[in-house]
Structures are given as structure tokens and as C-alpha cells.
Amino acid sequence: MFQEYNTPAFEEKYTYTGDDLGCSWAKDGTRFRLWAPTAADASVCLYKSGMEGTDDLIQVISMSTDVCGTWTAYAEGDRNGIYYTYRVTVDGKEVESIDPYAVSAGVNGRRGMILDLRSTDPQGWAEDCTPVRSRRYTDDVIYELHVRDLSSDKSAGIAARGKFLGLTEDGTCTKSGHPTGLDHICRLGVTHVHLLPFYDYGSVDEAHPEKSYNWGYDPENYNLPEGSYATDPYDGAVRVRELKQTVLALHRHGLGVVMDVVFNHVYHVYDFSVNKLVPGYFSRQDASGKLSSASCCGNDTASERSMVRKFIVDSVNFWADEYHLDGFRFDIVGLIDVQTIQEVIATVRKKHPHIIFYGEGWDMHTQPTKPGVPLAVQHNGYMIPEMGFFNEFIRDTLRGPIFDRHLPGYVSGAPVDRAQLLKCFRGVAGWNQSPSQAVNYVSCHDDLALHDRIAQAMPGVGEDEIARRCRFAAAFNLLSIGVPFFQAGEEMLRSKKKRDGKFDPNSYRSPDSVNSIKWSRLDDPEVQKTLHYYQGLIALRREHALFRISDAAEAERCITLVENTAPQLTAFRLEDGKETILALFNPCTDSLPFTLPQGSWKVCVMDEGADPQGLEERSDDIQIPPISALVAIAPKAE
């Protein structure tokens, strides 16, 4: 059967192109359309509640066969709030499953919910629109955040701890008065909040979320929000409404919202809805039926199959339309085929030209079910120029190699060739067509936090020096050409320590005690220095276009190395005919001298300070303090 799915004959006969898969609610009745071409029989089961196993069946409605392997049914009357499943017979076996296109569900996502989506719109939703309309990706600054991490620690002072609504609360602060949560993010100056997966994932019991934790890279239901982030996981309308309230709140504060999507694998391959209804269709297998698992999760998604591709394209469009999202980050997008990504971007951009797309373009060596299928890996980026990719070149240069966490990088004392640093600063990674495709970062949810990576590479170094090196890394990363990205809490010297005192390099299921943002750290003077430094760097970047160049040729033309400096000093000159900027980086534990070119220079970054309005005016020899950056700007030409 699996090989039959890959044939042109199967796709020609069973590719459905309509836009009505799933259930379509109306006050006088609800229509259902299911794609299940291998089923011998199908029906819709209507339930009073959304809890699997509850004996509250209301009605079973037989479905009729229709075009391209689809089945249809109609339930008369207003069924808003009723839960449902599909029951199909395949190869003589009867199975029951949630609708792959369900827009909400009961607790733990086993029964879908018929829902009047307009009834879940908060006040002002109809007028809501994106507050971020950047001309280019390099204008954006992305802040990566786990919903629960923001508010789960008591020091956040947030009432809706661990919930979507925790992101909507204004005026929250620590006991000592430092802003937390939404207010803190707004003061940073970032443009987008990238939220780790908030579709319905399977690794946390929604009825008892306090008993477990997960980042959420375990897809259960792609088209509905995660219930553990809702104040009531049993009522499917609540999770939808509260997510919309969250997006609305972020938009009203000028922040775009990026959704982390994980289409490259599913949580439980044979229990996933599509694979239950059409056995094995969603996943890649070889001729013997063995699953491809380049994702390291037991299965890879067969995006090259027409109805899997349609599902992914439909899903992203649904989230963009229904939840007013501003971007999508694709987990291991290198496992998805190029054509699928092209269709996603093209279709979404018809209505939402502002939306940004980026992902992990690593080549994981998966096994597509069809020959010659190009995948959305970094070296195929020229086929999808509007897709950004995480830039491991700058990450490993600055913090050290990803697979040997004890080796230092540039910011922890390793010598690095200036030519390599110039490539990093220009946004040149070797695989990207433009700086807009380079998502620059030194920390994200995965692997060690920046603080911990530096500490592990430099055992015995004190906290003051680690903090200084973190700020040094931030200066290089946030001012480099490309798309700046950083993990929430990096600006607060975030650390993830386990009970044994060791740093956690993979906290995907570690408890809140490890993963939560410890807002009480804001009382630490070094943390305050770091926070203000990030704020100043971001403001400086957003004020000067030379830091936001989006064309590779322009970056090469406008950014050059300054010669004849101290051997350990790396100095870049940024010049576009309108203004000149000097960006100097001293990785040494001693001060280094530099002679400013003739004229008056406004020093905007020096030692532990960063301010686009300037820290001081200089026109002579200057000393760059140890382990620090210095940015000096000549007045714009009249």
C-alpha cells in the first residue's frame, strides 16, 4: 500500500484540491469532508464532551463517498460546541480518529470540536492587523520564547502562570519593581516574539500540565492550539479565544508573532490522525515499509505526497488567516521538500505580504518517497529566497563548535581569523544568497544557553567575566548583517542549571525549575548592565540602515576590514556615502589602542554601555576596554 501512494496513478485519482476539508460550521448545519481514499466505510461520531472514553455519544452520521477519495456528511441544526470524530473501516479494521483538520478539541486532543470561530474572536479582533511591516527581513529582531517559561516562575508576578494569557498582562514586575513579562519584552525593542510550538502537542497531559514539561516539538494536532496553555483545556473554545487574546495583546504593543511549526515529524506515527485514517500516508517509508527517521523522532513526513503537501499548505494558511500571525519558523525545514515550501510562501503571501519565514536548513539525509525531490536545505536556498535559515556559521564561530561544548569560540578566547569574522559580520555563510537568509544567533532553546556555553568552555572564570563575554557576543551578533535572533532571557544572562549543579544542554522535558525565566535575576547589577546593553544595541541597529543591509553585494561593498590595527583587534568600517560607522571588537583581557580617523566621532557602544544617542564624543586615540566592542559613528554628510 505504501508504494502505491507514490504512484502518479494514485495521485491523479486521489488528489483533492478543494478548500473545505474538515468541518464547516453554519448556524443551520455543519458540513464535513474527510479525505480517506483507502476506507471502505466512513462516518461522523458526535459527542457531548471532548474527553476520550466518556460514554456520551449523541449521534453517528454515515458519510457518502465523493470526489478524489473524499467522504462527506451533513449534520442539521446548530452544532456549535459539539465534539466529533471520524470512524473509518480500512482493510477490515475499524478505527476512530480526530479530524486532521479539526480547529479545536477537548482535553488532550482526541475529539475534535465543531466551532463557530467568530464566536471566539475577542473585542477588537476584526480591526486587528500586523504592527510590523518591515521592508526586509534584516529590519527585524526576533525574540524566541516558550509560553510557559515566561510566567511559570513566581518572581514574574504574573497571574496566568504558564498560560497564553500570561503574555497579555501589563504592569507586571518583580518584588523590587523591575518590569517582567510583556512590559519587559516591549522595552527590549525587538520586533517579533517567536513562540515555541503552541499547536496541540502530545507530550504534556493537558489535564495536569504541572506534572510534566516539554518544548512542544511533538505534534498531535496541527490546526488547533495547545490546551495546557489554556485556562480550561476541557472547553475547546477557550484555547482558541485565549490564543487570539494573546496575539491581539502582542499586536497592540507593536510586536509581531511568529509560530514555531513542526511539520517534519509527528509525535506517535501510527496514532497520528492522517496515518490512522489513511494508514502510513503521512510518513516516509522505503520499499520494505521501514520508516525514514532523519528527524531522530522515529518518522519523517512525506511532504512530497500531494495530500501531505496540501495539508501543510492549508495548515499554514489557516494559522495566518485565523490567528493573524506574522511569521513561521519551520523546525528542521530541511526535511520538507522545496515545492511544499514554495507553495506555502506563495499562497500565504497573497493575503499577508508581511509574513516572514525561516527555519533549520540542516541536511539530515532523509529518504523521500519519490526520486529527485529537492529538499529545503541551506544549499537549495536559492530556490526559496524568501526563506531564512539559522546561521550555524556565526553561532559556531562566536561560541564554539556545537558538537564539542567544552571548546571555546571567539567570545570565549579562541583565536579566529579576521577573514572569517568579516564573513560573519557581512552575513556571508557560504550557502545563503543574501543576508536576509542568515538568521544570526548565539543561543536558542536548543543546546546550552549562552551564559552556560561560555562558562563550560572557560571553567574557573568568574561570573563578572562570563557576563562581560555574553555582552561581547551580543554586540557582534546583534550588529552583524543578517536577521538577529536570540533566546528569551539571554539578555538576563539566563542559565539552565539542573539539581546536580550542571548546565542542562537539552532541557526539552526538564522541569520549570530549570526552564523558567528567573525574573528575580534582574536584581543582579550584572544582569541589569546586560539588559540595558541589549536594549541599546537593538535601538542602535534599528536606527542605522548600515546594520540592516539586505543585499550581499552591498554588504561586500559597504563593509571592509580596517587594516593596521593591533593584531588582536578586529575593526570593521561600514560606509554608504551617507554615514561612516566603525565597529571594533577586542576579545582580549587587556585594553587595546585604536586611532580614530580625523574628525568628530559619536561613540555609541563602549565598554558596558550602548546608546544610539551617544555615550561621548571623541576625535583622538582611544582605548577599547577588555572583552568589549566599540562603535563610533561619524556625522551624516549634509
Summarize the structure in words.
An eight-stranded parallel β-barrel has the order 10-11-14-15-16-17-18-19. 23% of the residues lie in helices and 21% in strands. It is α/β, with parallel strands linked by helices and 638 residues long. The model has no long low-confidence stretch (mean pLDDT 97). α6 (306-323) runs parallel beside α7, α10 crosses α11 (463-479) and α11 (463-479) packs parallel to α13 (525-543). The radius of gyration is 26 Å and the shape is elongated. It has 14 helices and 28 strands.
Radius of gyration: 26 Å
Low-pLDDT stretches are: none
Biggest beta sheet attributes: 8 strands, parallel, barrel
User: What is the number of helices?
Assistant: 14
Percent helix: 10-25%
Strand order of the largest sheet: 10-11-14-15-16-17-18-19
Question: What sort of overall outline do the alpha carbons produce when their principal axes are compared?
Answer: elongated
Average pLDDT figure = 97
Distance N terminus to C terminus? 72 Å
- Residue share in β-strands: 15-25%
